[in-house]
From TrEMBL:
Enzyme class, UniProt record, top EC level: ligase
Name of the protein this chain belongs to: UDP-N-acetylmuramate--L-alanine ligase
Domain Mur ligase central: 118-292
Residues annotated as domain Mur ligase N-terminal catalytic: 13-112
Domain Mur ligase C-terminal: 314-446
InterPro entries: Mur-like_cat_sf, Mur_ligase_C, Mur_ligase_C_dom_sf, Mur_ligase_cen, Mur_ligase_N, MurCDEF_pg_biosynth
Keywords assigned by UniProt, alphabetized: ATP-binding, Cell cycle, Cell division, Cell shape, Cell wall biogenesis/degradation, Ligase, Nucleotide-binding, Peptidoglycan synthesis
Gene name, Swiss-Prot/TrEMBL: murC
GO molecular function: UDP-N-acetylmuramate-L-alanine ligase activity
Keyword ATP-binding: yes
E.C. code: 6.3.2.8
Key word Transmembrane helix present: no
Amino acid sequence: MNIDLSVVKQPFFIGVAGAGMSAIAQYLQGTGMQVSGSDRFFAAGAANDVQQKLEQEGIQCFVQDGSGITHATDLVVVSTAVEDTVAEVQKAKALNISIIKRSELLALIATTKKTIAVGGTSGKSTTSAMLFDILEAAGLGPGIISGAGLVSLIKQGKIGNAKVGKGDWLVIEADESDGSIVQYKPAIGLLLNVDKDHKEIDVLMDVFNTFKQNSAVFIVNQGNAYAKTLSVNGDHDFVSADTANAQTVGYTAANYTQQGFVSRFTINNHPFVLQIAGKHNMENALAAVAVAGHLGVSLDVAAAALSQYEGIYRRNQVLGKKGGVWVVDDFAHNPVKCAAAIASCQPVAAKVIAWFQPHGYGPTRFLRNDFVEEISKTLRPQDEIWMSEIFYAGGTATKDISAADLINDIKAKGKHAYFVEHRNDLLQQLRSHFTDDCVLLLMGARDPSLEAFAKEVWQQL
């Protein structure tokens, strides 16, 4: 589709409240367009936090009834979740308005800047945010289009997942789950890792290989077995120190320690401090530093920026501590992410109680054995894993698997595993399992009510 963004004045987003859609909508509004949009979560007379924040940015919001699309609308943007039968899509077609998918639009935006595309099955949002902070501290005035809000921007009353920079560089997340990553042709492609998630490894490798071919510079985590095979640029690749070939790459992290939720480590013998927990976040920071280093940013500047890094929405987000129990909210939703989130909490307390709500019957079925293996090998003898029933977003899914199946598999491995069908019953059943030195880790994604659930658990603890 040949669309010239320079002549677009009034784009309309169907499903504008979604994380990916709201980010692009805000970005285009920031470039001077008059953006509007609708969402099925908007209702006349009802308060909606995302809607209010979009409207604060000057984006006009409508209920999803077609009223927002007019003859002045010159582009309609849809996500993969929006079907052709939706009334607004039909109205756009009737008015002969060009329709473009979110991923296609992001690819077009990426051509207007020097783009850094962050890819991989885990850590994209965190690494993008860290890199944005480093480049900002270096005076490069970067822009960002992210899948999660940066706490530093959220504190300004924004959704926090987008900012138009004054400089030449734009940081974006390159999503492999829908295959859209192959559409980008970035100045720098960054590959964090390749682990089984939405697709089998061989399919993912094909996708990431195309990403590699489309990137002018490709920077790779050689500490990940699959990602390493795509390495082409050793000078700027990165790796954690427990890998045998650490000395052959440009950026190496080592000496990781964690005290509470604070992480300390070195990159090329330079000390770094993060105010967030987990060795996986050291690896995310290492990736961001490697890219920044390629752009000439010093380790001193990078370390100073990351020492002030405030994190992103629902990634190791510490809600607080009551009666010896820390409560942590996390977006972890695939096997590797869940294991990493659990491991990040283990240095904090003598016992970790992790709760997970899987999303989607198909993904849970596809990853069942991986969830069981990754979680089981991470749990210490005193730790526990709890699950509630799989989140169902609608559609025609075959409900032939339950979270109870995963719990039974983990229990068979000798671990403390419990199923509580309805999450509203969780806290009551947990109370006798708490100690005066433990972490309650709440994990899950895709369900928009998870943030409110975590806050409710914290308030009622």
